[in-house]
């Protein structure tokens, strides 16, 4: 085993153990460094393969670090992506079990559901727009297996882009009726305004974020497919949450999405 392979294996084992034991671990940049994004995605792929082998089902991708506000919060300067699994989708639950999470934070996003594959050689904004079936309001509940959110880019990429859970709102709006870059967002925790922003905060346009992801996913050999959900990135700063709090986001043209966090597992 090469030094690189050993570092990837050790980082994956550290993050898997933290998730399994629900005990945050130290950063993995001591193994990967702070700038080796390829190594970090290798760790992410290793963890994804582990989950797939255990029966997990992929439902899509999430894009992270698209908002300048969130980039500033975490001290990074470029997007990343992670994998969404079916058991992350808690849209149908009456209460979101905070017990499944370690250090949760909520952020409001535009979710795109794809009607077509994005695997061509000539991907551009027109191609990604044409591939979108509809957009919905979404809450992403991000989480970190790394203690105190002490992360660099490689730490969060390796940790599946700090993925946790997600909630999709009920509205489904085709792009012919909605321009993502013009969206405005307000997010409330127990009716107190805690975050606000707009579509331009997401790489200038959430469709730019989708294009970035489509090209990046294709380059890594796992392009986006019809039927998948894409969480396109935060429209404003993320906010820490806990059991007993209800989070509600209002996104213009898309409507409202909400989540009540509880300390109990659904029966």
List the helices and strands and how they pair.
Layout: H1 3-21, H2 29-32, H3 37-53, E1 58-64, H4 68-74, E2 80-85, E3 96-97, E4 105-114, H5 125-131, E5 132-142, H6 153-158, E6 165-168, E7 184-189, E8 192-198, H7 206-219, E9 229-234, E10 239-240, E11 246-251, E12 255-262
Parallel strand pairs: 1-9, 3-12
Antiparallel strand pairs: 1-2, 4-5, 4-9, 4-10, 5-6, 7-8, 7-11, 11-12
Summarize it:
This protein has 267 residues and is an alpha+beta fold. The chain is built from seven helices and twelve strands. The protein is 28% helix and 28% strand.
Question: Can you walk through the features of this model?
Answer:
By secondary structure, the protein is an alpha+beta fold. It has 7 helices and 12 strands. Helix 1 (3-21) packs across helix 3 and helix 5 (125-131) crosses helix 7 (206-219). The longest helix is centred in the first third of the chain and has 19 residues, at 3-21.
């Amino acid at each position: 085993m090469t030094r690189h392979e050993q570092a990837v294996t050790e980082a994956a084992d550290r993050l898997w153990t933290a998730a399994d034991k629900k005990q945050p671990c130290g950063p993995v940049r001591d193994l990967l460094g702070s700038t080796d994004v390829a190594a970090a995605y290798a760790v992410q792929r290793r963890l994804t393969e582990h989950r797939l082998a255990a029966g997990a089902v992929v439902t899509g991708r999430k894009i992270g670090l698209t908002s300048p506000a969130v980039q500033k919060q975490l001290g990074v300067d470029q997007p990343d992506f992670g994998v969404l699994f079916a058991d992350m989708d808690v849209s149908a639950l009456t209460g979101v079990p905070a017990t499944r999470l370690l250090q949760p934070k909520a952020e409001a996003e535009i979710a795109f559901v794809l009607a077509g594959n994005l695997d061509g050689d000539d991907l551009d904004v027109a191609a990604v727009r044409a591939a979108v079936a509809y957009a919905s309001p979404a809450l992403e509940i991000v989480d970190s297996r790394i203690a105190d959110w002490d992360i660099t880019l490689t730490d969060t990429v390796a940790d599946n882009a700090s993925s946790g859970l997600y909630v999709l709102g009920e509205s489904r709006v085709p792009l012919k009726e909605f321009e993502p870059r013009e969206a405005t967002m307000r997010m409330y925790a127990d009716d107190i305004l805690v975050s606000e922003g707009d579509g331009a905060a997401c790489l200038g346009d959430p469709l730019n974020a989708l294009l970035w992801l489509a090209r990046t996913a294709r380059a890594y050999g796992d392009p986006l497919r019809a039927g998948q959900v894409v969480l396109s990135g935060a429209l404003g700063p993320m906010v820490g949450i806990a059991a007993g709090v209800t989070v509600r986001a209002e996104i213009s043209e898309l409507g409202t999405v909400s989540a009540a966090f509880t300390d109990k597992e659904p029966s």
